[in-house]
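Support case: user asked for a sample of complex input and structure output to validate their parser. Sending the pair below.
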Amino acid sequence: MRTVVSGAAGFIGSHLCDRLLAERHTVVGLDNFITGNPLNIAHLKGHPRFEFLQQDITGPLAISGAVDFVLNLASLASPRDYLEHPIETLDVGSSGTRRMLDLALSKGARFLLTSTSECYGDPLVHPQVETYWGNVNPVGLRSCYDESKRFAEALTMAYHRTHGLRTNIARIFNTYGPRMKLDDGRVVPAFLDQALRGQPMTVFGDGSQTRSFCYVADMVEGLYRLMQSEERYPVNLGNPCEMTILEFARRIRQMTGSRSEIVFQPLPEDDPKQRRPDIAKAHAVLNWQPGVSLDEGLRATVEYFRGLHATVA
Ligand code: NAD
Ligand code: UDP
């Protein structure tokens, strides 16, 4: 199998490349490094079945040879990143996704889109099921991300319906683990970095908003199963273990043995109040459910961040 992965130097993309190589795929990784890190794929340099092309997927793609799978992970993904680059975010979700769909079509390959729980916006249905259409502010600050992914989903379904392309759509919920960027502003690296440095942990709002955190190895397993499935409609992938952000801050402080104080800062615009995936469909269709507990996943992530701190110090 020869598989093209966009966003290969990113957090989830780099882990997915590792998994595909372990499954004997030949992998062509694409990334323009707008948020990705060359270190995430440095260990793959010289791998006989891994090729990397520094490439913006919104531009023309020249991939020679046969391709069996096209996996589209390229996007700005953290609120800090997409708020800084709203136009690039809309562009990669629209033009970038179209380029990747055209690549799959021209090669007779299968296509997988990594979409997001943000398609549900600030949800009025809880937990979120795939049949819920969402509550998204189309002109708010976060709309550049939410609407780019909603457009990407619509485009993917249009290619399936118009051209018979074999497509899959993963709606990914908050995922964490090694290789996240320390400074990407997402809550896991933010809290871990602050706790490990003994600096104040910044809880936005009163911390009563909820999230459900999935470890990256579980996410990669879900994506790997989904890319081989015949399910064309979106499938939620995430860990249904839900907690408030304040509880999460306390949990991280306790497990790192940190004495950081918890401070409260204003809640960002349109920050969803609650989020938990209903994963019944993933269980039924993919026989998938997460297996890594929060403590286990956080321990591995803390170890990674401690390593980064040691390198920086
Ligand atoms: P990430 O920022 O670590 O990785 C995304 C990668 O895409 C980066 O390496 C970036 O440089 C690359 N990229 C962005 N625009 C590009 C372009 N125009 N051309 C080529 N490369 C480009 O983010 P991640 O957390 O690994 O997310 C991977 C995918 O999963 C994204 O599509 C994201 O929207 C989705 N997702 C992630 C989460 C999560 O919690 N991590 C949740 C929901 C959805
Ligand atoms: N958050 C926080 N402090 C931070 C970063 C994030 O309280 O330093 C909150 C944020 O407001 C949101 C939740 O943590 O309610 C998850 O934020 P993240 O940016 O990781 O992802 P989101 O789920 O919002 O896309």
